[in-house]
Amino acid sequence: MINPHVGIPELKSVNSRRSTQRKHILDLDDFSKNEIQLVLDNAVAMEEVINRSVRKVPALRGRTIVTLFHEPSTRTRVSFEQAGKILSADVINISDSASSTEKGESLYNTALSIQSMQADIIVIRHPHSGSPNFLARHLNSSIINAGDGCHAHPSQALLDLYTIQTHFGSIKNRKVVIVGDILYSRVARSNLWGLTKMGAEVVLCAPPTLIPPDFLKGFSKNHPFASVSITHNLEEAIEGADVVMALRLQAERQSKGRLPSLREYSQMYGINEHKLQLANKNVIVMHPGPMNEGIEIDTEIAHGPHSVIQKQVKNGVAVRMSLLYSVMAAPRIEE
């Protein structure tokens, strides 16, 4: 019998009577602070594995992971694939064009067929919000949400948290400014859950048309995002920031009348050298990708000394290894 912990240094478990193994990863709203920290801590161990000359451990040997992507993706899909293979799982990639949904089959029936082939984990990206949650209610396989509509992208948020933690040593009390298309961003929503739970000071900055209407009304004292502030002035938001996270401005928003012009948006909300000078000297600049350089972020900033964007991509593998481990190989602590 294979010991799943062989070859992985210093893996940790939550100091709790509850199970440390999650069946599904759907968003961070139901994660505790300790659970988030567990994923980040174990990502440190996974990163050590990635940096070895031989990048392979038997943690998920004999397990099958299927990535089911109904939207284009490079970073997330490849990252999950690499994470699974380093952990010795069998990884099968299915794109929308290669699945029977092209012939009219429903998402449920496609996923049911995949489960029948003894898939242990289904990593899904889908344009419709709630699709991973639907599958989690009806299938026995573990479901990991790799991005659903405008709803959530938990693995991206976790790798962002990991990037902040590894750079500063701690997330707590760091001022994090999220700039751009908040309204349609699943990355922003999952980051809000993660950052607030880890004690960061979060500022949202965007035109009023790109902020959810319920956000504009403000948050009540008991709301999970009560500490989050909102402004439409980027200079005001970025002053004293430790982290500036630019979001991708999707071209389709322009056709819906959310913005007067891309040029005006870039002038008011694009991250450039002049605006970045208002932040702390050791500020880091982040972006979930893909980037529209020259619109939401200047090329000089995207590839400059403050940018950790490529580091985010690298960190994604370690964090997704930690997530795969958490749903399939982590030990249980029974009640």
Describe the structure.
This protein folds into 2 domains: 33-152 and 316-328, Aspartate/ornithine carbamoyltransferase (Rossmann fold), CATH 3.40.50; 154-312, Aspartate/ornithine carbamoyltransferase (Rossmann fold, 3-Layer(aba) Sandwich), CATH 3.40.50. Helix 1 crosses helix 5, helix 1 (33-50) packs across helix 13 (309-328) and helix 5 (154-168) crosses helix 13. Strand 1, helix 2 (75-86) and strand 2 (90-95) form a beta-alpha-beta unit. The strands form 2 sheets. It has a 5-stranded parallel β-sheet. It has a 4-stranded parallel β-sheet with strand order 2-1-3-4, with helices on both faces. The two termini are 25 Å apart. The radius of gyration is 20 Å and the shape is globular. It has helices at 33-50, 75-86, 107-116, 131-138, 154-168, 186-197, 213-216, 234-238, 251-255, 262-269, 273-276, 299-302, 309-328, and strands spanning 64-69, 90-95, 121-126, 142-148, 175-179, 201-205, 229-231, 243-246, 284-286. With 335 residues, it is of the alpha/beta class. It contains 13 helices and 9 strands. Residues 14-19 have low confidence and may be disordered.
